[in-house]
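== Fold encoding ==
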Amino acid sequence: MTLKQFAPWKIQTDDRFTLSDISTRLPEKLEKADEAKRLKALFDRLNQLQTMLYASKSRGFLLVLQGMDTSGKDGVIRSVFTHVSPLGVRAQAFAAPTEEERRHDFLWRIHSKLPARGEMVIFNRSHYEDVLVPQVRGWLKPAMLQKRLAHIRHFEAMLHDEGITLLKCYLHISKGEQKKRLQARIDEPDKQWKLQASDFEDRKLWPTFMRAYQQTLSATSTHLAPWYVVPADDKSDRNRFLAELLVATLEDMHLKMPQATVKPGSFKLL
């Protein structure tokens, strides 16, 4: 599998697209047995690639997950990354900026959370919250919004130059599917801890959020840091799609195991 196969879901730079024109489901669903077999092969390969990334310590990898509430950011991290070694893998969640963070530039809080060489980091929300939410709430004037989008493009280009590969995924859920998942949080006691008043307020602003995502993804999807729209209405298909995209991206990095620093034959076991 290569990255070319994901072209239908890749956002082109300055692409004038509409999220409602992109399906929230994959065109075909695998049978359960075929899906289980496919996932095992994907997770085995993902583990191999992550081991090479960690061992070589020559590159870093950053996966950015964005999406509306209940789109599955936590679920992807739990389902896909359970199958790799915890060595060199880290998940980082971003909430609303703290008082201290607001006293700095909007990228300040991101820098210390970036992957080191050899590390794979998953951002559950990210620096994009600081352009998406202000767009929707009207906190940024258009000129400042454009400046922030430009800052993000330059920031991500710098990360690429410093050896960090970026993969950015928008988890694309329909409003109808979100309603089902929010209702499940209301009805099921073991899910009620996830309930946030902001989830329901943001839902009222769905069209505004969609426009903000469209503008943001179009303005910041570059050949160095592309955005992909991940169909997310079906959880198992979402996880498989993202695992396939992750493996294809890591394969494209042409990772290799490092050479041994000593000759294995120079040791004798006593």
Q: What stands out?
A: The first helix runs from residue 32 to 56. The chain has a mean pLDDT of 94. The chain is about 45% helix and 15% strand.
